[in-house]
Every structure is written in structure tokens, then in C-alpha cells.
Amino acid sequence: MVGTEFSPTDADFRAGFAVLVGRPNAGKSTLTNALVGEKVAITSNRPQTTRHTIRGIVHRADGQLVLVDTPGVHRPRTLLGERLNDLVAETLSEVDVLGLCIPANEKIGPGDKFVAEQLAQTGGRPIVAIVTKADTVSRQQLAEQLMAVEALGREVLTAEFTETERRKGIRAQKKGKSYSPREVPTDLGFTDVIPVSAVDGFQVEALGALLISHMPVSPPLYPEGELTDEPELTMIAELVREAALEGVRDELPHSLAAVCEDMIEREGRPEDDPMVDVHVSLYVERPSQKAIVIGKGGARLREIGATSRKQIEKLLGTKVYLDLHVKVAREWQRDPRQLSRLGF
Ligand SMILES: Nc1nc2c(ncn2[C@@H]2O[C@H](COP(=O)(O)OP(=O)(O)OP(=O)(O)O)[C@@H](O)[C@H]2O)c(=O)[nH]1
Fold first, then answer.
1. So what's the ipTM on this one?
2. Contact 126, 95 (CB under 8 A)
3. Is the CB–ligand 1 distance for residue 105 below 6 Å?
4. What does CATH list as the number for 232-341?
5. Residue 30 C-alpha to ligand 1 middle, in angstroms?
6. CB of 292 within 8 A of CB of 300?
7. What is the rounded (10 degree) CA torsion for 9, 14, 16, 21?
8. What is the DSSP letter of 185?
9. Alpha-helical segments (H) within 175-247
10. What per-residue confidence (pLDDT) applies to 12?
């Protein structure tokens, strides 16, 4: 993660990496899009749709913020889950500020606490608690949630502090030395707590500024105008996967993967009206799931194709011929070889 260009010479210019984490459906992807101002991360009503680390880049006069959108931090059940958690741990260790997303309209639960504890364990990095979806609650409810989030910060950071001191004591004891644990500071807690709404834009600017204020003084890390460094093929695959999931609410939970096989400019087209042939394979685990994706007489697949083609055309800025294939890759979630083939 090294800078490529040094343009603004301002001595106060800041640049660095931020990550938004939170339990599934906390609003991370939507907030990433709102901060960046263009659709780069994939949002969906379904939890855990964000499997790839997609970066959006916020360019401002005073700094540059590279956002890494992680999958929801959750307890691993399959091999895929374990890989996701490795990815999360790796990402957390590489960023300058941690953004913990907690929705305004849901009681703080064990999921939020679990994620907050993981962040506290990264040790010493600023944690900005972001209370998302502020538009969905009254001012009174929002105030109460902000206080509950403050309390959560106090709780997990105090627990982490105490645990660290306890470990130091044990290590010292093993070496035959004595260690008197430090007193718990009274001001432990999240670095900031800020409410936002990605839907009506409330405080989105302020959040951008706040996150940048935690970045180190640095030249920009990416050239201006760049929104994401995710390869187009991956973004195309994500768009198709999103469209395929939208249609089927409960039948196809996480057993669906998409791979963009290639993207070739069609020859012999007029220069002012180019067209790109895009080939995407959708992978499911069982023949019955294949039938769901294809639908009666291919109706669902046509719908998926039409929806995602429009989005791919927007992304590439040209006409697109989209060729979709549905394939069965049994138990792909548990097979490491298949996983790497699918880019996980
Ligand atoms: N009203 C309102 N809804 C929001 C806001 N932000 C997100 N949502 C909705 O909340 C749901 C989840 O949002 P996502 O951005 O997909 O959540 P996520 O945390 O990325 O979810 P995963 O990918 O599952 O981890 C979607 O239906 C969004 O439309 C907001 O500011 N206001």
C-alpha cells in the first residue's frame, strides 16, 4: 500500500486507510457508497453479501480516504467463513482508523459487542463508532442509542485494558517477576461516536472529515478520480451476483458465486458505438438451485441478465452483450481449490 503520485504539496494533507466493520446489515456498503459518491460496493437486503474487499476512495481538498469494505465479522462455520475472518483480521491490522457501524434502529446486541471486542483487540487504533440509519429513528431514540454506544465503548475497552494487564501479570509471574497492574483509566471508550444517514446524507460529509482527521500526514495514495482499485471483472461478477440474489429471498442464501470469465470488445463495431461481450458464470451448489436461478422457461435468468447488464453498461460506459451461464459446483463453500478458482 504505497503511494503512487504526490500532487497536493500542502503540509497538512492527510491520507490513509479506513475500514468499516459491523455486523451483517449494519449499513456498511451503503455508507461506503454515500461517502464515495458512486456505486462501488455491493448492497443488498441480504446479510453477508460483501465477500470481496472493495475499496472506495474519497478525494477531498484536505485529504484522501481509502475505504476498505470488509465482509461482516462473524463466527466461522464453513471454510469460506474462516477465510472471511482471516481477511477481516488482516484488513484490521493494516488500516489507520476503524469505523464500527451500529444501526440506530436496532438494540445493541451480542453481534455488535462481538465486533466491538474484535476491534478493541487490535490495540490502540482509533475506533470511530458510527451510528448508521439515523433517518429511521426519532431524535430521542437517536440520543439514547448514542449513549448506549458510548457505554459499549467504555465496556469493551475497559475489558480489553484489564485483560491486557492480567496477561502482563501472568507473563511476569512466569519469569519470577512481580507486576502491579496499572489502574484502569476513567476515560476509556471509542475515540468518537457519530450518527449518520447514508440515505438522506445526514453527517456523511462530517464523517468523511472526521475519518480523514485520523489519517497520518501523507501525500495522496491514489491519483485523483480513482474510485476503486478493484478490477472491473470482480465488480462485474459482484453486480451479477447481486442481481441473482435480489430475486430469490430465502432459497439461495450464500450458495451462490459469480465469476466474470472474460470481457472482449466486439470487432467491427462503429467507433462511436462500441460494444463489449461479457461472459459471466454463476455457480450454485446443487441442481435444484440451478433450476431456481434459471426459473421457469429461463425467465429468472433473463431478468438477472437484464438488471445486471444495465449496471455493467453504466460501469463500463459502453453497450454490453451479457452472456450468463449457470453451473453446479458442488459444495464449493467447503473446497479450497474451488474457492481459489472463484477468487476467494
Ligand atoms: N433508512 C436507511 N436504510 C439504510 C441506511 N443505510 C443502509 N440502509 C439499508 O440497510 C440494509 C443493509 O445495508 P447494507 O449497506 O447492505 O449493509 P452491510 O452492513 O453492508 O451488510 P452486509 O454486506 O450484509 O455486511 C439495506 O437494505 C440498506 O438499504 C440508511 O442510512 N438509512
1. 0.98
2. no
3. no
4. 3.30.300.20
5. 5
6. yes
7. -150
8. P
9. 204-213, 232-247
10. 82
Candidate ranges 145-159, 207-221, 278-292; pick with highest mean pLDDT: 145-159
Question: Which residues touch 305 (CB under 8 Å, ≥6 apart)?
Answer: 322, 324
| Shared fold status for 14-213 and 232-341 | no
CATH 3.30.410.40 for the 14-213 domain, yes or no:
no
Residue 319 is labelled as binding a ligand: no
Q: Is 73 annotated as a binding residue?
A: yes
Q: Are the C-beta atoms of 48 and 72 separated by less than 8 Å?
A: yes
Alpha carbon distance 296, 287 (integer Å): 14
Q: Report pTM.
A: 0.65
Please give the grid coordinates belonging to residue 30.
451503503
Q: Is 132 in the pocket of ligand 1 (CB under 6 A)?
A: yes
* pLDDT at residue number 334: 56
DSSP 113: H
- State how far the Cα of 150 lies from the Cα of 164, in Å rounded to an integer: 21
Apex 73 CA angle, 68 and 79, nearest 5:
105
Question: Using CA atoms, how far apart are residues 3 and 222, in angstroms rounded to an integer?
Answer: 6
Please name the residue ranges forming H helices in 248-298: 287-294
Window from 65-74, 158-167, 282-291 with minimum mean pLDDT: 65-74
Distance 29 CA to ligand 1 centre (A): 7
- Give residue 332's Cα distance to chain centre: 22
Which of ligand 1's atoms lies nearest the C-alpha of 132? 31
Distance, CA of 294 to CA of 301 (rounded, Å): 5
Q: Which helix (H) or strand (E) holds 165?
A: helix 139-174
CA 314 vs. chain centroid, Å, equals: 22
Taking the centre of ligand 1 as the mean of its atom positions, its distance from the CA of residue 195, in whole angstroms, is 14
Task: Please report, for the chain, the start and end positions of each structural domain, with discontinuous segments joined by +.
Answer: 14-213, 232-341
Closest-CA residue to 311 (of 68, 42, 25): 42
Query: Reduced to 3 states, what is the DSSP secondary structure of residue 34?
Result: helix
185 Cβ contact partners less than 8 Å away, ≥ 6 residues apart: 161
Q: What are the residues whose beta carbons fall under 8 Å from the beta carbon of 112, sequence distance 6 or more?
A: 22, 23, 102, 152
Residue 274, annotated as binding a ligand: no
